[in-house]
Amino acid sequence: MSELVTRTVVKEAAPTGVEPPAQDPHTNRAGAVIALARFEARELLMQIPVLVFLLLYVAYTGWTMFNGREGMDDHPVLQDVDRSTQTAPLLLALVLFVSINRAVLRSRRHGTDPHFDVLVMEPWRRSLGHALSAVPFAAFTGLVAGFEFTWAALKPGAVGHGSLAELLVGPLSVLLAGVLGVLVARSVPFTIAVPPFVIGMYVLTTLVAASTQGTHWVRWLAPVVTEEGAHPFPSDLMGRPAAWHMLYLVGLIALLLCLALLINGGRTPRIKAITVLALAAMAQGIAGQAPSDSDALIAARAKASATPQKVQTCVAHERSTYCAYPEWTGQSADWAEVVQRVQSLAGGPAAAERLTVRQRVDARSGLEGDAAIEPAKAPGVVTVTTRWGGNRIPEFAVGVASVLVTGDETAGGEVCDARAVIIMWLALGSESHPLTVLRHLRIDDSISGGGVALAPTNPVSMNAAQTEVIKELLSKPRYSVIPKVKAHWAELTSPKTTTAQVAQLLGVPAPTGPGALNVKTCEE
């Protein structure tokens, strides 16, 4: 009470017009740390390696956004787009790790460490400032990833749902690299230690991955886990612990930062408390992401793969029915356009056949499974995958033509006779550049000799003679071929018709390659 009275008397006795004493420098340490972080961030940006990799990251992202993968990105699947933003920032993270490590050791290299002893800012606060210098780069990475995702989401053909946790992996990886650079510098204060550390981490992760054989919980200890290979899954079948992984990364970043501060003398109660909280958050994230696919998820994937009709929505266009997973129902009109285009070239009963186009995906092997989709055995059923755009469109046309000619996908995959000619003409006859599309469809990227044309399920094989006839047909105006196809449909779709007879019926030169006179052969 007496102290309070004394303070009041002194305050009242203070003469007016006298300025208060200058603020204690210790009370503005947070502002000093932020100022140091801003200065170091500008210094990093002025370094050629950082600037070059930053520009390369932006250029690569822009190239993928505007060029895509041969039209595949015209119909992006958003639950795949968010994961695709995670790998490009890794090179930026690597160069930032090296640069921040060198920045922390700058005073040691120049012999100016003793001069810092006269400053008010403690050494551990300087370490905090260096770590915070990575924040602008992480924020910029987040802006680029967000712009990339938004660009894909605004496309008319976009389907699916993205995840904020997946989008944050790239920025968190950059921030993790910056914090790790500070920790390594404070633990081993020698610049030469960086290359052995990077090589050692690479060797260690390789050995761990090989020894654990890709165990789920071990793989998810890495900053980035993309899991690619399979066709896009419906979002409810993804099964990725993205939120738990984000918590794990946040906890790991905070823990490494606290370790760097503790090593550098920051053994304050607040830092120790944050260290405990960071360790708990990281442990909780690891525990959450550790379990592999649940039984419910495995059952849902099996149901969507083996009996897709139980989880799909079907709509009718013209005479055919189109069944899709809920997120892809908007693409049924695009499928119908291809079916009507192919069917308009057919003759006989095929011109009026009622098809069932069913979307299918094999999700039983997980996101990295690359198992081929088994052909549908039911007559009149055509498979379409969860990828659309680019080469997937003519591949789907090949599948439609195979079913129109043979009746079902199983028989379509066994065609080794002259019916391959009419199948390929139906699929490509209405293309503006059919020979170019034929080259893209064939595995060997050629339009001569024997080859295999891709389809959603079983491919279509053709020998050299059949390829020769197909090229001649595709070089002619389709309106001169359509009447002949419709008039001779029964002969053209008979397995007993030779390739030479097909050429004669359609009015093109007889083939000279091997297999011209054979009824059934897949060899050149």
Q: What are the SSEs and their pairings?
A:
Layout: H1 2-13, H2 29-45, H3 48-67, H4 78-84, H5 89-104, H6 106-110, H7 123-132, H8 135-153, H9 164-167, H10 169-187, H11 194-212, H12 216-219, H13 242-263, H14 269-289, H15 295-306, E1 313-317, E2 320-324, H16 332-343, E3 356-359, E4 381-384, H17 392-406, H18 409-412, H19 419-428, H20 434-441, E5 451-453, E6 460-462, H21 464-475, H22 478-487, H23 489-492, H24 499-506
Parallel strand pairs: 2-3, 3-4
Antiparallel strand pairs: 1-2, 5-6
Helix pairs in contact: 2-7, 3-5, 3-8, 5-10, 7-10, 7-13, 8-10, 10-13, 13-14, 16-17, 17-19, 19-21, 21-24
Work out the number of β strands: 6
What's the N-to-C terminus distance?
Answer: 106 Å
Question: Helix count?
Answer: 24
The ordered string of helix (H) and strand (E) elements is HHHHHHHHHHHHHHHEEHEEHHHHEEHHHH
Largest sheet, order of strands side by side? 1-2-3-4
Structural class assignment = mainly alpha
* Form type: elongated
Low-confidence sequence ranges: 1-24
Bin the helical content.
Answer: 55-70%
For the biggest sheet, the summary is: 4 strands, mixed
Summed over residues and divided by their number, the pLDDT gives a mean of 88
* Strand fraction: under 5%
**Cα gyration radius (Å):** 32 Å
Report on this structure.
This protein is mainly alpha-helical and 524 residues long. The protein is built from 24 helices and 6 strands. The strands form 2 sheets. The protein has a 4-stranded mixed β-sheet with strand order 1-2-3-4. The chain has a two-stranded antiparallel ribbon with strand order 5-6. Mean pLDDT is 88; it is low at 1-24.
